[in-house]
Write a structure and sequence with these properties.
This protein is α/β, with parallel strands linked by helices. Helix content is about 40%, strand content about 25%.
């Protein structure tokens, strides 16, 4: 395995960020609403051995593919989101949140009779007590799928990158994956995939395939030796993708490239407050950097900086270019101090 890549120069980071802000990115996948009920707890319920939470604050945020799109928009790029919501209050809330994030909703289709996927987290004393999921995860088909395929093709007409965000909620069936990837390959734009187990092997030809370690091992049905380049190259061949980026939480990432090289990219997070949404941030920054002309290794480094910033925030959050630039400069200074001290 190769040692961690040398940090990008400040000029290169600035150049890529400037290019990213003029890029056009399409995100296709499962749109979700994240709700937060935040309060205090002082006692157990007399009805069951569970805490009683008195809610003091309520707020909602974009989740899933919508959070990826929000991250793309937060770094200044133009983003088109393709997916579905229900004809319900949650769907209306998502459209409101998209407007706040300056994201268009013309390719977000309403599917009657199918609820908007939502996750409600109840939090007390900075701890998540329970999460309630409201969803129907059957794969879209028939007329609804045809409408979504048409929307994806229209959105991709002038895109610089395609990001496929699968949360196993049914809005990214094989027919939509194939149609989106066909357009992207024909136009020669990068494809970044954040997969889940149900369609794990549907993404042959993707530029970057980005599972976490648990997802990868679950799909392959065996533990994966991340230290052995040959083993990881075999995984790359089995998936039939160009590059594999395995996220490892606090341990950073492992990048396996089509040239056979394997590189560990250590996390730069100083503290981990909440890992919710970190994978979405990596997908957004990885895809937008590739759209701007970054190499796969450069894009992975920028995405790693962004993830290190995101996990220091509470809940699902976006990351700004200024925050990534600050994280890069801190890392660059840290390496400089170690070199001057003869430690590396």
């Amino acid at each position: 395995m190769r040692p961690p890549p040398a940090p990008l120069t400040r000029d290169r980071v600035l150049h890529l960020i400037n290019r990213m802000q003029t890029s056009r990115v399409v995100v296709v996948g499962d749109i979700m609403l994240d709700r937060y009920l935040v309060g205090d707890t002082e006692r157990l319920s007399p009805e069951a051995p569970v805490p009683v939470v008195t809610v003091r604050e309520r707020h909602a945020a974009l989740g899933g593919a919508a959070n990826v799109a929000a991250n793309v928009a937060a770094l200044g790029a133009r983003c088109l989101l393709v997916g579905t919501v229900g004809d319900d209050v949650e769907g209306a809330t998502i459209r409101q949140e998209l407007a706040v994030a300056r994201l268009e909703d013309r390719f977000v289709l309403t599917v009657a009779g199918r609820p908007t996927t939502s996750k409600t987290r109840i939090i007390a004393r900075s701890q998540q007590i329970v999460r309630i999921d409201d969803e129907v995860d059957a794969l879209l088909d028939g007329t609804d799928l045809e409408r979504l395929v048409s929307a994806a093709r229209a959105a991709l007409a002038d895109a610089d990158a395609l990001l496929l965000e699968d949360y196993n909620k049914g809005a990214l069936p094989p027919g939509l994956i194939a149609a989106g990837m066909e357009v992207a390959r024909r136009r020669g734009i990068p494809i970044v995939v954040d997969p889940k187990y149900r369609q794990f092997f549907e993404y042959a030809g993707a530029t970057v395939f980005k599972p976490n370690r648990r997802e990868l091992e679950s799909a392959l049905g065996a533990a994966v030796d991340l230290q052995t380049g040959n083993a990881l190259s075999g995984v790359l061949s089995r998936l039939q993708v160009d590059n594999l980026l395995v996220t490892l939480g606090a341990e950073g990432m492992v990048l396996v490239m089509k040239d056979g090289s394997t590189t560990h990219i250590p996390s730069i997070a100083r503290e981990i407050y909440d890992v919710s949404g970190a994978g979405d941030t990596v997908t957004a920054w990885m895809g937008t950097a590739l759209a701007a002309g970054a190499s796969v290794r450069e894009a992975a480094q920028l995405a790693n900086y962004a993830a290190g910033v995101e996990v220091s925030k509470a809940g699902v959050a976006t990351v700004s270019p200024q925050e990534v630039l600050a994280a890069h400069e801190e890392r660059f200074d840290q390496i400089g101090r170690l070199r001057r001290g003869g430690l590396i």
